[in-house]
Amino acid sequence: MKDRIRFHLDENMSQAIANGLRRRGIDVTTTPEENLIGKLDEEQLTFAVSQKRVIFTQDTDFLRLQQQDVSHYGIAYCQQKSKSIGEIVQGLVLIWQVLPVDEMMKHLEYL
């Protein structure tokens, strides 16, 4: 089986998103679970890189980091209040199903 994307959910993401992904067998960590609450965006990204995880965020600062060509295993981004929890879970599941790990490296995917 090919390597699968693993996700890390940035601060302020609903636990329901993590639960929905886990029910579908997707490996996911969250900022509270990893004691990263209040850490800088760069620290969040460093954690995700150390774990080879795609970070899911609604924080526009990660768009800036993407433009600065910061190394990462992928950023999945969704504008705040633009999608329901169910739509976010569906979007992340789709990314997990169709995009290989190597295609997400240094890639920004919009939900």
UniProtKB/TrEMBL annotation:
It comes from Pseudanabaena cinerea FACHB-1277. InterPro entries: DUF5615. Pfam families: DUF5615. This is DUF5615 family PIN-like protein. Residues 6-89 form the DUF5615 domain.
